[in-house]
Design a protein that fits this description.
Chain lengths: ~325, ~325
């Protein structure tokens, strides 16, 4: 009957449009189309791959951030942890493939330990996450400086450089790696006990306490994991750049939070998933690359990026209260 | 009142830890710099401290009402760039510039306040977005540092009143006076009420959104004041000058005993926090600690003072930020 068809399609449209993931994917597509109009070749396979590859770093940082935000907190130290990861990785790798295994263990471990410090301050001393991680960011930045004495040394070994810049069947390794990570993370979040507890802890629900998990201890460990993941992101970034630089992580802090918001994770904690966040990372990275390609001045880039974040924040604020 | 009761009151004052730290800071400073208590050094110190203290007041107001303002540093950047771009030698030009600066500061406050109070978007993200936008505008106006501030204007800042009060100190005294006037008004109680428990405040008839908006406007006044000091001190417009002020204002508020769950702490405490932070930076400089260690030490001090500050307070307070 014609009437119910109309109603059915209205319901379908409403459900599809209110699906944040769908909207995010469409937004990315539109952005690429826009880029193609201005720069023919923007939507070429190679270029899409290179933009996607660039998104991976933000994607990993945003992963750690998502976990923390779902648990009910926020982490402003992810950038400085990435920076630290870069310089420590370079130092231990020293350009030799042999050093890869030990570096793969040491770097996330250091990140985990530092993250735990934040976690302790937040969970047990009661310092608000914003402040604790903000202060830790300065401390970690200082550690980077002290560690390198201002001159980062070492570089990525050939194997890691291949993973960082290489491709297989025209697909960059990093993107494949990210795909695997996205799958694993989504499975853990949605299908395992740990994911369930994470959402419970974030929502402060009784079920979390009833399942015998200390919410405080769990949250503390989440900050540890975020630290490990952020430091690992630094290792990945080093694979891409080859040589270490100081302060590579600063541009990732706030975009990681923006990506989390875009991806539909509530800042109050307890809900959201990583796939939307990953899409958000792609969106933000694509936007930045368009702005850079347009040879806009830093001033214009800042204004555009800031206005965009504002629009996103405002629209999500309204939706979040529905 | 007996002595024991009086002592207990002092002991429980939330600003006491800050005061003690302040005394400690002054002592360390005096040790490292023998000329610390001379008038010249006193004035020199306050030339740099005053903007920081004013910015700490601005941030404290926002935190007390339950939010945070990450755009303060960018506001300083934009305001100083604006002033250095349009100020001329004539008296009328100076007045016009100052009016524009204060007007812009209030406009920025309105902007932030609107999205936070009425759209109810998270203050952290809104002021972060504003930060980026304002910084972009400042860069647009002055991609490289430049501009002009008339000599008689900035000399005034570096001058003295009655030969014993440096102008920066006078500005701080005026700021304190402004705030003590405000503390007698209704808005003062409203700000603390909303910060402490917005729902309860709403239930008792307070217009929460309007209160938050007014808090932002009040904060803007102090930001503008700080910008005037900064531009007088540097005599130039630099889009990147404000970057450090945001984190410093947050740190100063923490050190000054402002609680991030809102509704607690005093502006006087924030001022002390700003002073302590300024003295700390001095200490780091005079102790010949290399710039490598300075950021690290600043962060460390903040973490430590946080830990000390949080322990006696109630645990389990959820931050509203």
């Amino acid at each position: 009957m014609p009437g119910s068809n109309a109603i059915l399609s209205k319901i379908f449209l409403k459900n599809v449009l209110s699906n944040r993931l769908f909207v995010a994917i469409v937004a990315v597509f539109l952005l690429f189309a826009f880029g193609e109009i201005i720069f023919p070749g923007f939507m070429s396979f190679t270029h899409i791959m290179s933009v996607l590859r660039l998104s991976v770093f933000l994607g990993i940082v945003a992963l750690g951030q998502s976990l923390v935000v779902i648990s009910g907190g926020i982490d402003l130290s992810v950038g400085s942890l990435l920076s630290l990861g870069v310089v420590i990785s370079a130092y231990f790798l020293r350009g030799e493939n042999i050093n890869i295994p030990e570096t793969l263990v040491i770097v996330p471990l250091i990140g985990f330990a530092i993250g735990l410090i934040s976690g302790v301050g937040i969970s047990y001393v009661g310092i608000p996450p914003l402040i604790m991680t903000l202060a830790m960011a300065s401390v970690i930045e200082g550690i980077s400086l002290i560690f390198t004495k201002g001159f980062p040394s070492g570089n990525a070994p050939p194997l890691l450089e291949t993973i960082g810049s290489g491709k297989i069947f025209n697909f960059p390794y990093l993107i494949l790696l990210w795909g695997v990570i996205i799958t694993i993370v989504t499975l853990i979040l949605k299908r395992t006990k740990w994911g369930y507890i994470l959402y419970g802890v974030g929502a402060n629900s009784l079920t979390a306490e009833l399942s015998g998990i200390s919410a405080k201890r769990f949250r503390m460990y989440i900050y540890g994991f975020c630290g490990a993941i952020s430091a690992f992101a630094g290792l990945l970034l080093l694979s891409y750049t080859g040589t270490p630089y100081l302060n590579l992580g600063a541009p990732y802090i706030m975009p990681s939070i923006a990506a989390v918001v875009i991806g539909g994770v509530s800042l109050a904690g307890g809900s959201g998933d990583y796939l939307g966040v990953a899409t958000g990372c792609i969106f933000l990275t694509t936007l930045t690359s368009i702005l850079v390609a347009l040879q806009t001045t830093e001033a214009v880039r800042q204004i555009v990026y800031g206005s965009l974040i504002l629009i996103l924040v405002v629209t999500h604020a309204r939706r979040g209260r529905e | 009142m007996n002595i024991k009761g009086g002592l207990k009151e002092i002991y429980q004052n939330p600003s006491l830890p800050s005061f003690l730290i302040l005394v400690g800071m002054i002592t360390v400073n005096a040790i490292l710099q023998p000329t610390f208590f001379t008038y010249r050094v006193f004035k020199l110190n306050f030339l740099t401290f005053t903007p920081l203290i004013l910015v700490s007041i601005a941030q404290a107001i926002i935190i007390i009402v339950g939010g945070i303002d990450l755009s303060i540093g960018a506001s300083i950047s934009l305001l100083t760039v604006l002033m250095a771009s349009i100020m001329g030698d004539s008296f009328s030009s100076i007045i016009l510039t100052l009016v524009c600066a204060f007007g812009l500061a209030l406009l920025i406050s309105l902007f932030n306040g609107f999205f936070i109070s009425y759209i109810e978007a998270p203050p952290l993200l809104v002021t972060y977005a504003t930060w980026i936008i304002l910084f972009g505008i400042a860069l647009f106006i002055k991609p490289t540092p430049g501009g002009y501030i008339p000599k008689h204007f900035y000399q005034a800042y570096r001058g003295d009143v009655l030969h014993i009060i440096p102008v920066p100190v006078l500005i701080l005294i005026i700021a304190l006076l402004i705030w003590s006037v405000i503390s007698k008004l209704r808005i003062y109680k409203h700000i603390y009420a909303v910060g402490g428990n917005a729902e309860a405040a709403r239930a008792s008839g307070i217009n929460v959104s309007l209160t938050k908006l007014k808090a932002f406007l009040l904060s803007g006044i102090f930001v503008a004041l700080a910008a005037v000091c900064v531009v007088s001190q540097t005599a130039t417009g630099d889009a990147r000058c404000g970057l450090g002020y945001t984190l410093n204002s947050v740190a100063a508020s923490i050190i000054g005993g402002i609680s991030f769950s809102g509704g607690k702490g005093s502006v006087a405490g924030a001022m002390m926090g700003g002073l302590i932070l300024g003295l700390l930076i001095n200490v780091l400089y005079f102790a010949n600690i290399t710039s490598f260690y300075q950021e690290f030490m600043k962060g460390l001090i903040i973490v430590v003072s946080l830990a000390i500050g949080m322990i006696p307070k109630l645990r389990g307070e959820r931050s509203t930020v």
